[in-house]
Design a protein that fits this description.
Length: 291
């Protein structure tokens, strides 16, 4: 009677798991010049699912800061070119249209691209807000250094400026594509969590006022709501290894189930494959369809 062999995963699966264990998280390879990807409480602006799906798409092409910056730049340039369509499409449909010319977004759900765009906008606004304060205080050189002068930063700024000019921030369209919480000092990555943090801080302030002589309660940020390092610089990207990558779960690709992998394949509309893409392939464009 022969021995029962232990169940073993196929070699392709085992190789995939090993590759995942050495692959950096998306937040670790995102461009940081002109962007801060965490809140003042060091909570990432991108969710677990966004990080997993988008990282997977770039891993099948070029998974580095340069290619991701180029991909985000083209996405926001496409959005600006289609700015008039904001009036006729839902946010998910609009971002599907904006990304229809770019390979890395092809097949990704429009709602996920929309939510990702808000994370990018949040990361950019946090730096812009901080550098505005620096300029007001006379630190012009430091402000310009931190603000960043990259093509990606310009693309994001151009889109948000167009939303503000064309539609206004108080319009329904402005509230959808450039919502108030992305511009809030206490932005926590979603409207609900940002509201909760503001309400919590208001409660602390009210409690302090009712206790005359008591010290102000400590909060996670300085009085302006913006973290600074020892030199007074904004913390551009400093996520603890043990920090949650999302509200629900730790961002750990090694623990993704096979079902999650299958689900992502369905979202992406195609398998990762092993084809090596160069930058030109990543940025290949296709005619826009105005549906």
């Amino acid at each position: 009677m022969g021995r029962n062999k232990p169940n073993r995963q196929p070699k392709s699966k085992r190789r995939s798991r090993r590759e995942k264990s050495t692959t950096p998280r998306l937040i670790d390879v995102l461009p940081t010049e002109g962007f801060c990807w965490v809140s003042t409480t060091r909570k990432p602006f991108l969710s677990n699912r966004q990080g997993r799906v988008i990282a997977k798409r770039f891993r099948s092409m070029l998974y580095n800061e340069e290619s991701i910056a180029k991909g985000i730049t083209l996405l926001f340039k496409g959005a600006t070119e289609q700015i008039d369509q904001c009036a006729f499409k839902s946010p998910a449909d609009f971002w599907n249209l904006a990304g229809s010319r770019i390979i890395w977004t092809r097949g990704i759900d429009g709602q996920l691209i929309y939510e990702f765009s808000l994370g990018v906008i949040s990361a950019r606004y946090r730096v812009r807000d901080y550098t505005d304060d620096l300029r007001a205080d006379g630190f012009l050189e430091k402000s310009e250094r931190l603000l960043g002068n990259t093509e990606m930063a310009t693309a994001v700024d151009t889109f948000t400026n167009q939303i503000s000019v064309v539609y206004g921030l108080t319009s329904d369209i402005g509230k959808s594509f450039y919502p108030w919480w992305t511009r809030d000092d206490y932005n926590e990555g979603t409207e609900e969590s940002t509201k909760a943090r503001n309400q919590g801080l208001m409660g602390q302030t009210s409690a302090a006022k009712t206790n005359a002589g008591d010290a102000e309660p400590e909060v996670a940020s300085n009085e302006n709501g913006k973290n600074e390092d020892d030199d007074g610089d904004l913390e551009m990207m400093d996520v603890d290894e043990d920090e949650d990558y999302s509200e629900d779960e730790d961002y750990n690709e090694d623990e993704d189930s096979d079902e999650d992998d299958d689900e992502d394949d369905e979202d992406d509309g195609e398998d990762d494959g092993e084809e090596a893409f160069n930058m030109d392939a990543l940025m290949a464009v296709h005619p826009i369809s105005r549906r």
